[in-house]
Amino acid sequence: MTRTARAPLSRERILDAAVAIADAEGLAAVTMRGVAQQLDCEAMSLYYHVKDKAQLVTGLVEVIIDEVIATTLDNPPGGPQAGDWRDVVRARCLGARHVMLRHPWAPPLVANADQVPPNTYRVFEALVATMIEAGFSYDLAHRAIHAIGSMILGFTQELFDPNVDTDELSDDELAALAGAFPHLGAIAASQPHDAAQSLSVCDTQAEFEFTLGLVLDGLDALRPAV
Amino acid sequence: MTRTARAPLSRERILDAAVAIADAEGLAAVTMRGVAQQLDCEAMSLYYHVKDKAQLVTGLVEVIIDEVIATTLDNPPGGPQAGDWRDVVRARCLGARHVMLRHPWAPPLVANADQVPPNTYRVFEALVATMIEAGFSYDLAHRAIHAIGSMILGFTQELFDPNVDTDELSDDELAALAGAFPHLGAIAASQPHDAAQSLSVCDTQAEFEFTLGLVLDGLDALRPAV
DNA sequence: CAGGCCGATCTTACAACGTACGATCTGCCT
DNA sequence: AGGCAGATCGTACGTTGTAAGATCGGCCTG
């Protein structure tokens, strides 16, 4: 009746466990003792492989970025990239968004990481390379990176919070709101509200692709012809 | 030697104190006991005016949004809005960005707020109204809101983290990085790095205005003529 | 003026967290 | 067998959010 030996701890196993917890119960549930329990060990054992909790969180970002790299650079879905630069960049953005959709806790972490893990640079380097090949100046490429990055990471807010609408407000207050904000009411009324695979009620795939196209076309118009 | 009577607690005074702490020492320093100390009272006294810490944080968002409303809607710098819709929207965006620059901890909070305070709707309602007057469809206005919102809130990341460069890496490792990411190196080299009034090293005013113009012009091109 | 009532504040206490410090265990080399 | 070093654990402390109830102070009523 010897207890089955556990697999040895490692930074990778720890990060995987943390990601699993974050996916299942949210980022706030990622705690030292919680991760340890998931790995059937004590909290203090983690510290041999991870400096402290801040670095564990940075590690989470690293895992997500690795996932982005795997699905957009190392083996992109439609084979190697070719054709218009916009199609290449668009495919990568949609891939990155897919990863974020699988890990809804990630965008704020990535956007607000105090320490940027080095693999992040690979993503940006690839994007800049594609743009430079398409005739971009470094300055324009830099600005493009910012525009694209803030799109992928910022597309998370809930404009019309369902909690507020359903729970805490009476019908009277709701009607008052609709009266005070007629335009927003009109927008909300015209929404399909099929929030199945989206980060928020009004963050649908079509909308993301629209804004993405807007930015990419705008950049393309500013690009010196090649 | 009677102790000078303290001003009575109130939700507003509590929120103001919390904002002051966040501005001075960062969001992590906003703690129940800390806020209480600032107000010369005990931590538990706050709970009479604020439900719990989550609602206190929501209150912080509320304060920031109020500041945005005050500086962009109630008394905008250049008098009431007129002229091209892009100029109106641009002025409001720059005003909102100004507020965020004064409270660098705010963007992630606003972007990730679990509960959207109602005054947020006023900002969006005003933006949509301006666009509808300019001939936008509700659908286009909705998408525009998303594009603009993610710009203002997402423009915060540090692409090239100064901590990494200066501290933890040896010169060899630094050279290796520069070799692995030549394009990023070129961009970094061409940067002025006067990060005085910006949220991050490569988040300058000019760059923000560039991306903003890109989005606004793109939207304008899609707008039905009036 | 006495008594009581109620909104506002405080005291105490507890669970959960991150983690410093040192003890312990385990496999390998001599 | 002896010991050495890498890996894991036990204990304990400070800090956090907050539940439960005690206490204060001003105002109204009798």
Give a structural overview.
The structure is a homodimer of 226-residue chains. The first copy, chain A, is flat, with a radius of gyration of 21 Å. Chain A starts with 10 loop residues before the first helix and ends with a helix. Chain A has a domain at 7-50: Orthogonal Bundle (Arc Repressor Mutant, subunit A). The first copy, chain A, has 11 helices and no strands. Residues 158-167 of chain A have low confidence and may be disordered. In chain A, 63% of the residues lie in helices and 0% in strands. The first copy, chain A, has 226 residues and is mostly helical. The structure holds a DNA duplex (30 and 30 nucleotides).
How would you sum up this structure in a few lines?
In chain A, 63% of the residues lie in helices and 0% in strands. Chain A contains 11 helices and no strands. The first copy, chain A, has helices spanning 11-25, 32-38, 53-74, 85-102, 106-111, 119-133, 138-154, 162-168, 171-180, 182-189, 205-222.
Number of helices of chain A: 11
Number of strands of chain A: 0
CATH architecture label of the domain at 7-50 in chain A = Orthogonal Bundle
Distance between the termini of chain A: 72 Å
- Major beta-sheet overview of chain A: none
Unreliable parts of chain A: 158-167
| 3D shape of chain A | flat
Give the averaged pLDDT of chain A, no decimals: 85
N-to-C series of helices and strands of chain A? HHHHHHHHHHH
CATH homologous superfamily of the domain at 7-50 in chain A - what is it?
A: Homeodomain-like
Approximate strand percentage of chain A: under 5%
Reported by name, the CATH topology of the domain at 7-50 in chain A is Arc Repressor Mutant, subunit A
Structural class label of chain A:
mainly alpha
Please name the two chains that share the biggest interface, counting residues whose Cβ lies under 8 Å from a Cβ on the partner chain. A-B, 58 and 58 residues
Give the oligomer, counting copies of the same chain as homo and different chains as hetero. homodimer
Helix content of chain A: 55-70%
Radius of gyration of chain A: 21 Å
Please report the first level of CATH classification, the CATH class of the domain at 7-50 in chain A.
Answer: Mainly Alpha
